[in-house]
Amino acid sequence: MTDDVLLELSATLGARLKEKGATLTCAESCTGGLIAKVITDISGSSAYFERGYVTYSNQAKHEMLGVSLESLRLYGAVSEVVVNEMAQGALRAASADFAVSVSGIAGPDGGSAAKPAGTVWFGFAAKDGRTYSIRQYFPGGRLQVRQLAAEFALCVLIEKFL
């Protein structure tokens, strides 16, 4: 995967959001703002990109997005429950039309047998009530996991929501 792929996906996403007059927000953990970065690499993205939240710590997820401390304790940050709460929280906080959230283990440390390095959960939410969540596993080192996660998030937004 190259930067060209991310730029092409970002341009496609931006064009679709513009056509709909819609806005997008991101709530990112393991990608550290990469999704917001590639979206805003496109000139004119201010017309559709509302804001991004980099909520790396559990406290940030709770304070900025309203993720329940109970959910974090019971399921962990890398879980379907938490990414759904992150996406819903970002959607509300930004008053956007669409939200994507991501939380995972980019590695090489931090994994476990249940959640090995490369495990990433994605949450998607739309103002019209549509939601979607999915877990993926990406091979490779830290940079590759983050890049593949950003690419996947953009693809799902384009294919399932726009």
UniProtKB/TrEMBL annotation:
Protein name, per record: CinA C-terminal domain-containing protein
All copies of domain CinA C-terminal, residue ranges: 9-159
Highest taxon of the lineage: Bacteria
